[in-house]
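Run folding on both entries below.
>entry_1
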Amino acid sequence: MPANLPPDYFVEEKRLRQAKSIDEKIAIIEKMIAIMPHHKGTDKLLASLRAKIAKLREEKEKRPQTQRKFDQFFNIKKDGAGQVLCIGFPNAGKSALISALSGEPLEVADYPYTTRILHTRMMRYEDIWIQLVDTTAIGDENTPMWFGNMVKKADVILAVLALSDALDIEYELIIEELKRYRPEIVRTGEPFITAVNKLDLIQYSSYLDEFIKNRGKEKNILPVSAEKDVNLHELKEMIFNSLNIARIYSKLPGKKPDLELPFVMKKGGTVLEFAEKIHKDFLVKLRYAKLWRRDSYNGMMVSKDFVLEDKDIVELHI
């Protein structure tokens, strides 16, 4: 059976011959695999390409120790209620989207690879701050310096795709890359968000419809526009929900609750875990707690193992 390779495949093949860095070569080969038809006529070619990727990754692992130490400079310490790692291909509009979400400008340009190092911005969501990390574009030679470690430790991965006729290909390439470091994201879809940016490119709107239709069972896909402020509030809410956290407010006996600075916990946390956040001694000294929860509880006494929910107000008694 003939391979019947499409013209785009040979374009990438030419790029591969010109590529210099290991990671650039891997990215191009992965794109070639995504482009090529998969049938009996391409089985040998497919196996050959996958073998090349395996060999390149083995070569990459043998890089000098000094290079590995340099990678440490591309690790960003977590800040705020959670860390969101924004990834994507060149000119997807990551920096513009982060600027719009945070209100703090980042360097934005029409040419590829504007972002050369990792940058952080803080996004306000109601009464908490969430850390956004802007990254070098996938395919940039600096990408290997941060990708694996940052993907592993991020609380949420935000993939930013530009509206185009390559939505499906770019999405699949990102998923393939994530499989290496966070296979649970591919299995469960969490904590992973896909933002399809640049909705003003209306000539590609049919590709967006098809992209969403093909992934109807997958959640956390949101069309946005950083430039036109479309669905940015919805994206903030989606990010918050993906963090899987709860805000708990403390209250001193006889005083009003502090509703300005909530304690942040993972959902499913108990009264005792909340007490430990306030002071470690409370683990032993805590006698009981009182809880206020919207309309269902109003100063009701609860046990140490009572599970808290977002926006609960807790009064500890020791």
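>entry_2
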Amino acid sequence: MLFVGNFEGLKSHRSISWRCTDSRSLGDFLGLGPTDPVPNHSCVSKTHKRLPEEVFNEVFRFILSVAAHKGLLWGKAIGIDSTTIQANASMARQVRKDSGKGWKDYTKKLANQAGLEDPTDDELRQFDRNRPGKKVSNDDWENPYDPDATITRMKDGTTRMAYKAEHAVDLDTDIVVAATVHPGNAPDTQTIIDTAIDAAVNAEQAGVENDLQAIVADKGYHSTKVVTLATDLGMRAYILERASPNQRRWTDKDPAEQRAVYNARRRTQSERGKQLSRLRSELTERSFAHVCNTGGARRTWLRGLASVTKRHLMMVAARNLSTIMRMIFGIGGPRSMQGLRALLQTAWIHFERLLSALDRLVAALVALMAPWSRAISG
């Protein structure tokens, strides 16, 4: 049913259950008879919560093994990028970690200290909008309903409670080899190596014989620690450096770190590095578009890092399954199969018309050549 949610672009368990109940074809796909009850949204949510994360990892790796069996998983070079997922938590429901007071109580206390006695709600909002030093930090605030969600700047520039989803995509086959979910404020430099290790483990357990050789990422992932650790793990890092007006000094630094950074700089400036960077931009953004935008996973209706991770794993697994189907059948999406029969019938009608036209053309040529053939024979 979670796969159906991705294929249909449904965001919540409630909408998935309603859609599967409404459609007989989906019920048949789920193995349900005409009179069998479809699990409601609470059953789906409770089962999703009770199953451990290892079960979802096994499903994800099973689909990767199908891709490897079909020759659609190479696993030599991966592109890594991240996006934000809006959490099922409100900025207005945050509380202070030290006192447990909400935003309104905290602002009213500051207003009283500033000499504003018994302010109204409008006065309180005006005071909060204009007060100096206004800052909301994850170190001081949390949402009591979803403590794992953090205050994050979204892609559209707004500030929301969110998570960060990170994908590792095979740059040869467009298959997502690893999908991890982190708190929204987790630095990219702290999550890239974990995602790369997960990708290497998933590819190995899926039956891929090749070893992970290259990691490709944008400049937000660049750090000396990341490049050095990738080198120590036997992987080449193609990560752009941030622009700096000053030349870096390497005094009292490990020569191995300097060598790793210079080698990564040289690789990113080569033709191979530029080609991999273009592929990373194309394929990772495509995976986010398929999973988050058309797949309905841009906003989660679940709470807790574990639940969000399990749901996102299934969304990415469904996307990998659709990629395998498209590569095998040559059809764009799952719904494109619905018009395949009409397409074949139309093609056959045009083919019959073409044969009829060729028959008429041959008959006309034979009639035209008949006098000449009789003259030659005479």
